[in-house]
Write a structure and sequence with these properties.
11 strands, 3-stranded antiparallel β-sheet, 16 helices, alpha/beta, 6-stranded parallel β-sheet, 44% helix, homotetramer
């Protein structure tokens, strides 16, 4: 009992005052429940995830770009070097185009009559409204762009988004816009953006329709799986941390987390899981879905390094509240980092992973690694060259 | 279509920057979904609820005082004159005593072993921890205080909490503490605090046990029901607004909202419902409970003036996140108000209501008011003396 | 690993077939997540809570009686002797009156326009609709009844509801209705019904208004607190189990759980907490509120016997789904029990508790019991006469 | 007011009785809130979606097959001809393999220590447990199978799953298993199964790793997008209904709903949206994500025919509860339907869509259809040959 004050900080906030800064308020008054989780998330992100050379992946689900969070938060985070790679739903990237192309979205209301809206040609995403022509014009832009010769082949979604982002960036410049679009910023800052469900969005729909004509564009899903694993492997094999910042859940969450099992098990390369885990979601664990699965459960799969569980935070709160707060906190308390420009390293990182895979991987059943967790993490990891050296195995973990 | 830009603001946030103030960030980047609701809540509270002479009632559920939000947010709001009366669960007031009595609570973790905690005498409220003695000492304080002669009678909970708050305030002074306790602040600032479930907390439990000895203290539930209605009636009959700021839901939410039907129907006095409605909750409407019932539904009951539905905001988010943000926003953008000291007016306000009730109320079935909503609200209400003057009735609304 | 099949049942459900009975389907196909929790709830209730002589308390929150669950489920459970005492919100009892008085409620829709409804005199509870006159007539009934001489005094809510239930039962008979009302059934079957927030409902509002006239009716909150503790103490001191079946959360949940700390700590009588805990709710623990607090957390407070944690089930699901399923399961798999008629024993049970309290309780600070959990529960408890006999204390636990 | 009884059924359930059948209980006692939604879902599915020749698509998210719901519910629904095509997460199909390959999963607990589980080689999905070797053996099976010559090419996921299902079915037969696997049943019954995120699962991970060796297998995302649209178009152009049964939300929900905009807008073929919409989810609309987006919002996008909004049901409840109940209800109240074997028609359906697209589609911006909703749906639709025949456009709607 007496030991409580040795183990835990006293909970005695200062009174909230006029004119407080965001980071000051969070450090002062967010002391329990999801408020405390949000404060922990801010500190985890600022003091650990973006500290040093760590690689930070962000996954985007929920209609964040329609809500303006691309321009408000995600682009500033990319620009500051705080987000190194992204996995997004297609919808977030499709709606990001509206901003990059200078189209207008409106802050409306969720209580409008949808039959009337349909009649009037108004599209609704909860309380975000825009004109039907926003869709038609965006579609036309996508179809026009992907007819270009550089798109007439099979490619990963990171490459596709990079090429698309270039066109968005050009359009932005022509329109006198700056920093409005995630795709454009990703192109400029060399941040690879993947989509785990490439057919599932208006972008994918237009690509698919054009493929019924003479388009040769096809997404190379296999490359995406291996490329994302290569990014994580590059970070870890260099002795740096790999962090995940998950907004929402869904397929992008799993796609981001499965990089570790892909390395460890499917490829047979010794590894221990992501270092830092930060999720903002409203999905609770009890329904069994991966969206709400806890970092603890991810440990049982080897997705998360068990010695890092204390550095895992889940905040149950809408991303439209948490993301601006975390962004403001991080920008206020941390200096911008040098951009990693991971996009420029895509071929070399994939090659490095492939080489390790050839050294350790097998096609038949991989044996169960017997020395699992034999060496509790002591932050002075064995040098990468000593990893998984035994011919016989090497696996560590798993995934959905 | 073209009309979207006439009806709704464009959704084009500025990028989040280093060092932003809380109110600045909220006005800049909270544009959609619950983020937008939170921004609307901040503006509704700051620009309408506490504008002018409006009376603001706050209901507290969820373990807010253990989380430090009494000291951090509720006391500053009371001190600034932004909260005029309160309905709280007993638990929030019981745990508020710990702060006022200088006891220690700790910011712990929700992932501890409860069997171990029980063995070690540690009490847990999600991630808030404290020593078992905190409870025993608080209990002893309550039992000691309520043996005083001023407690040997039947009284409303506002009076009980006022008398209790006086002792807390004295203890605070002796300990050199300032502004730590809601009960103490309520005593100082004349803010009446009611409990809708007076037996349901450690305070009520100690009162009940003492009543098995020779204590004469008994809560006058009837007085509470009528007194809360009297506060609302005083505001409305003076031509001012009545607002509700609901944290969580539960019994305090209903108790706060039922004031209007109590006036209109049970007492037969013409009225139109609360003016402004602000709720932060995680209870969704679809399960049918009152905690998640929408302001729209409250309109069907006459609890909310239908012409004010646009001024009703529900933000689905943990109060440990929303309350500090709304508090910081309001303190930053509004000047302190003159304290209403409603506690000092409790007898006169109740008398005023009783007089109106005698004039209009009936015991038998009250007839259905036929001119319901005949005069759409035009903000120049009929003078109070003309209200419900007909002998035959006058009622308008209902409640759970 | 190989040991999984020794510790856990294999998860291999049979295919769902045409014509399956409710209990059969639940035992066959509810194998994981909230489905499994619901199956566990059914079995916990049927095989443990209502097995033998155990006393079962049920708490009601959410608008269950408007949804028809009084008639459909709660009355059948009372009649079968499966629910021995009840803590309800006032709203559930007020709306129960509509059924007992033969009034009409309708299965409507949640998507109606509330301003129109208000204009047309229609009241809405999510998708339940009824006429404004249902309220006016119910109010008139309450006001008429409580003018009777037997109501002109201070009394516990169990007594009040019993007296009210008698009138409802008479009205039912006159109307040729049977088994429609919880209040009426409680009167017939001797099931005490308490309200933890007696002023908070239309019943309380009418009582309060009448108290401004010449009514002498006042709720004795202290009696309710002690009486509920007496029911639990009677069960435990007789060597039987005490179970809680919590629908929703809120004040009734806490009021039901606080009986144990009231016995153990405030009264100083040695006890170990409720035996079985079953809750159906949509409130998650992470927001810190008591509604979503886990049985584990309740252990740290002594509300739940730690050796019984495996017998605690929380199912996150709307009560309108779980309650009919649990009811059908229990009625199908268990025989009716002899009615306990706890109402008839209210005075003797309270006296027994008071006597123990006089023997063990103190007014000053109760010392921390040093032998807490010294004797791990072995189901052969020490005889009640040996409990807490030492002058020096005896306490065990706590509450909000 | 008096009109309530003309518009809505009276809410007066019968008492629940011993031995009730599932469908009987649902029709008797599920009268309000999510209980009523579940009853409506049962009736919508049974009386409208599977009535006549309607085509029913089901989307699967959340870990349903690990929970045993493949064998318990999905296979029986496919066998009865009640589900004609499926969009699933990869995880549901990967874990379905365990059942088809005769491996063991266990009904465990969510409260185990994950660090211990990892050490012991136990994998956890909330409360479902299985041995690490289950993963290794399943992986080896996938890698072995996809080395076959029929897999050495680019193909849609429906074809991939069909080919894979054949191997599962053979393994089932060899093991003496029957009806345990969704993939096997899909192969037998000709039910096409798509995955919207083909790289996102252990199946996709193994395919990707093998592609680093000499495997030629690549998913044709474009074909999936067009093929799913072709299934819907085939139903609608034949004058039959198209229904969606959505379990959870996520990418599969959007992928299923986007078929209509793909037809209408991207391909320029006149259409009006899906006819019946049934979703079981815990995602609420207010967070803005598509998982919780309402059928109303889908109307504004043209995904749902506005004249069918009354036939759209969303039940907020865990699928582990709703799916067994809906399955039992449907099997009890409807006769099996003739299997559609849509898989066998995949080429002809795609050709039919492509032909219409060539007739109506454009690459440039498609004009806004001016006669949108000119002809309110009167259930006697214009003959398909007259649809969208004008050269100039024809589009109607949209998607994320």
């Amino acid at each position: 009992m007496a030991s409580l004050n040795k183990k835990f900080p006293r909970l005695l906030p200062a009174p909230i005052r006029k004119g407080m800064r965001v980071d000051e308020l969070i450090d002062t008054a967010f002391k329990a429940y999801n408020g405390a989780r949000l404060a922990e998330a801010c500190r985890l992100f600022t003091r650990k995830m973006i500290a040093g050379e760590g690689t930070v992946g962000m996954s985007l689900t929920g209609a964040l770009t329609p809500a303006g969070l691309g321009k408000a938060a995600i682009v500033p985070l990319m620009k500051a070097g705080f987000v190194d790679w992204i996995i997004s739903t297609g919808a977030n990237l499709y709606h990001d185009l509206h901003y990059g192309l200078g189209m207008e979205l409106f802050a409306g209301s969720p209580f409008l009559n949808d039959v009337d809206l349909r009649r009037d040609g108004v599209i609704r995403i909860y309380d975000v409204l825009f004109d039907y022509d926003v869709l038609l014009d965006t579609d036309a832009f996508v179809r026009e762009v992907i007819q270009g010769p550089e798109f007439q082949r099979t490619m990963g979604t990171d490459e596709f988004h990079y090429l698309l982002g270039k066109y968005v960036h050009e359009r932005e410049k022509r329109l006198g816009l700056k920093e409005t679009s995630v795709l454009s910023a990703a192109y400029r800052y060399g941040v690879p953006i993947f989509t785990s469900s490439p057919g599932d969005s208006s972008i994918g729909m237009n690509i698919a329709a054009m493929s019924l004509r003479d388009s040769k564009l096809l997404v190379d899903v296999n490359r995406d799986v291996n490329q994302t694993a290569a990014i994580v492997y590059a970070a870890k094999s260099a002795g740096a941390t790999s962090s995940v910042f998950i907004l929402g859940g869904g397929s992008p969450k799993n796609f981001m987390l499965q990089t570790e099992p892909q390395i460890q098990e499917v490829m047979g390369i010794e590894e221990r899981g992501h270092d830092y885990f930060l999720q903002c979601t409203d999905a609770r664990p009890d329904t069994g879905g991966l969206s709400g699965a806890t970092p603890g459960e991810a440990v049982s799969w080897g997705k998360i390094d068990p010695s890092n569980l204390p550095d895992c935070v889940v905040c149950y709160c809408d991303s439209t509240i948490t993301l601006p707060l975390i962004t403001a906190y991080a920008l206020s308390q941390a200096k911008p980092r040098k951009l990693k420009r991971l996009y420029d390293k895509r071929d070399s990182q994939l090659e490095a992973l492939r080489a390790q895979y050839y050294r350790h991987g097998k096609i038949e059943k991989i044996e169960h690694r017997t020395d699992l967790d034999a060496t509790p993490k002591n932050k002075t990891k064995p040098p990468p060259t000593k990893r998984g050296r035994s011919g016989r195995s090497v696996v560590g973990t798993k995934r959905h």
